[in-house]
Amino acid sequence: ILLDLMMPVLDGRSFRAAQLQDPRLRAIPTVVLSADAHAASKASEMGAHGALQKPVDLDVLLAEIARHIQAAP
């Protein structure tokens, strides 16, 4: 899941909390994408698997996705 912290209906923190409550969704890797200067620390606080700063370089984004796909069971 590529998760923005600032979304109009449900913010990223609330989404992640709901995701962690659902056993079917809990293990899905979640990477925070944000323009927030503190995205990495916020992602860590939320138990996300990673964080990327916007604007995101496409090669960096693809490498992050590949890393989680390769780690999937």
Describe the 3D structure.
With 73 residues, this protein is of the alpha/beta class. It is 42% helix and 15% strand. It has a 3-stranded parallel beta sheet with strand order 1-2-3, sandwiched between helices. It is globular, with a radius of gyration of 12 Å. 18% of the residues are buried. The model has no long low-confidence stretch (mean pLDDT 93).
Strand order of the largest sheet: 1-2-3
What class would the helix/strand composition place it in?
alpha/beta
Low-confidence parts lasting 5 or more residues at pLDDT below 50? none
Residues in helix, %: 40-55%
**Cα-to-Cα separation, first versus last residue:** 16 Å
Order of helices and strands: EHEHEH
Proportion of residues in extended strands: 15-25%
| SS element count, helices | 3
Number of strands: 3
Shape: globular
Taking all Cα atoms into account, the compactness measure Rg is 12 Å
| Mean pLDDT rating | 93
List the helices and strands and how they pair.
Layout: E1 2-4, H1 12-21, E2 31-34, H2 39-45, E3 50-53, H3 58-71
Parallel strand pairs: 1-2, 2-3
